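Cast an eye over my tokenised protein here and flag anything odd:

===
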Amino acid sequence: MKFKTTSLFVFVSAAITLPVTAQSYFTDFPEAESSMPSDWVVRASSGFAVDSGGDFRFTGSGNGLAEYRPDPANGFDALTDYTIEADFRKSAGSNFTGVVGRSQSSGFSFYMARLNGDNIMQLYVFDDGVATQLGGDVTTSDDYLSGETWTIRMMFAGTQISAELLDESDTVVGSIVQTDATWSSGYSGVRSSEPSVYENYSITVPELSSFSLMMGGMGLVFSLVRRRR
């Protein structure tokens, strides 16, 4: 009597749910006084540096532009949907303080949200240095006072570009929501006139709750022993 061994392959398709970690960046500018923050690059005007209080300060002439541009970029050059947030101080009056996002690798091309003067919130798109305001001026429900720390946020979700200003009590005092398709991704940074101070800066990409990893054709081998007459 002989026995014959037969191998049976069973193909299984399984879905495994795994968490996805959000890509993010945060700094409160811990670098030495008079230095530039790590991986930040000045793109317009001089006068950006960490000050004695550990804040990122612009005291140059004209309008300054500095951006977070790590090398290698690690994906921060191609971020699409994300949120920028910064706590800032400025002097009361005509100067402006803002943040930029979806900035292109070359040229002055980006989106900018800013507080202009004491109570005017504005949103712009720049295309190779040419600025176009998105929507009109928004008058904040509270006036900025010198020495206060306010928060500015800019959010990107597809073609929707939005911004918020929060006063020292974390109350939203102004917001703008506009639609524009000029730029779909890019770097982030700050843009301001003198004097402007940034206490911290963050970039956050929305976290996906999960994704399904399909494993097709995973062969499970069973050895069957069959008696052969």
